[in-house]
Amino acid sequence: MSRTFPPIGRSRALQVGAAALVVLGLLLWWLRPWAEEPPGGTIRFSTGTRAGVYHEYGELLRTEIDKDMPDLNVRLMTSAGSQENVADVATGKADFAIAAADAVATYKLGDAPDADRLRGVARLYDDYVQLVVPPDSDIHSVADLRGKRVAIGLPDSGVRLIANGVLKAAGIDPQKDIKPSSDGIDTGPRRLGRGLDAFFWSGGLPTDGLSRLAKKSSSAFRFVPIDATLVAKLHDQGGATRYYRATKMPESAYPTIQRGDPVPTLAVSNLLLTRSDVDPRLTEWLTRTVLDSRDLIGATVHSAQLVDVRTAIYTDPLQLHVGAQRYYQSVKP
């Protein structure tokens, strides 16, 4: 038996049509920018030393960018670390880089060249300060470093910036009270106990250079704690030190070395940064790739598992790049 449906009135039809247009518009907005042709060209991405987490993250991100933007050539540039990266982006030597928030703040507070052009793309993950000594060392606190041979990182690295601050908080002059060296994570581990009494490293957990050393022996090295009292004294120095927070390195970072014990230390957040004149559409695409590739990259660089859209927008001391803003607005619930 046929059934007759009542006719839809003109007013009702217009309402249905309007609702359909709204749904279609929202769908197109959600799909944007994937409905567009992917950006192309060449960008320069400054990372860090080859043995550090910055460079490993950069290599993995480049692979993911190639999937989303096959016509975009990503040139990875090694560097001393955060301080060099910030300067390179600000002055146009690089287009994107990873840098710790304290290094960014130091550059801005120092009224350095083109600091006003720096913009944030995403907050990534935290760097943890790791003070490493031989297992049988008589160094049990930062104060015990006095008179010792200590690697404080490359001159333009974030490690150098934070190590100097920690030493000063302990009442140690980095140039007079220790025998400083510029070893980083690439050379520090193999020189430990062979010309070095200790070395500072600030990086994501775990750092490959230390993981490799830990695999050789469960007694290859140990960590010196940096307690909250010392962090409070570090904050008293003012300026960029407000970006440091007292925390504990989890026991899972280097399990064979820590043997179930967390290590008191301090952490600082890492930022993906760019410049205000970098193409907004390119930055929007790149921001999406960073967030979408979290799990794939995090399978190798474990600290990258912490990248999250809810925290990525907090790029203090930098305001977000307009392209990054577009991405976060597009995924806002």
Structural notes for this entry:
This protein is α/β, with parallel strands linked by helices. The protein is 37% helix and 20% strand. Strands 1, 2, 3, 4, 5, 6, 7, 8, 9 and 10 form a 10-stranded mixed sheet that branches. The radius of gyration is 24 Å and the shape is globular. Mean pLDDT is 91; it is low at 1-5 and 28-33.
Shape: globular
DSSP strand content: 15-25%
- Fraction in helix: 25-40%
Number of helical segments with 4 or more residues: 13
Unreliable runs, pLDDT <50, ≥5 residues? 1-5, 28-33
What is the chain-wise order of helices and strands?
A: HEHEHEHEEHEHEHEHEHEHHHH
- Please report the distance between the alpha carbons of the first and last residues: 47 Å
- Category by helix and strand content: alpha/beta
Number of strands: 10
Let me know the average pLDDT: 91
Give a quick rundown of the structure:
The chain has 333 residues and is of the alpha/beta class.
Topology record:
Layout: H1 10-31, E1 41-46, H2 53-68, E2 72-77, H3 82-90, E3 96-100, H4 101-109, E4 118-133, E5 149-151, H5 158-169, E6 179-181, H6 188-191, E7 198-203, H7 208-216, E8 222-223, H8 228-235, E9 245-249, H9 255-258, E10 263-275, H10 280-292, H11 294-298, H12 309-312, H13 322-330
Parallel strand pairs: 1-2, 1-3, 5-6, 5-7
Antiparallel strand pairs: 3-10, 4-7, 4-8, 4-10, 9-10
Helix pairs in contact: 2-10, 5-8, 10-13
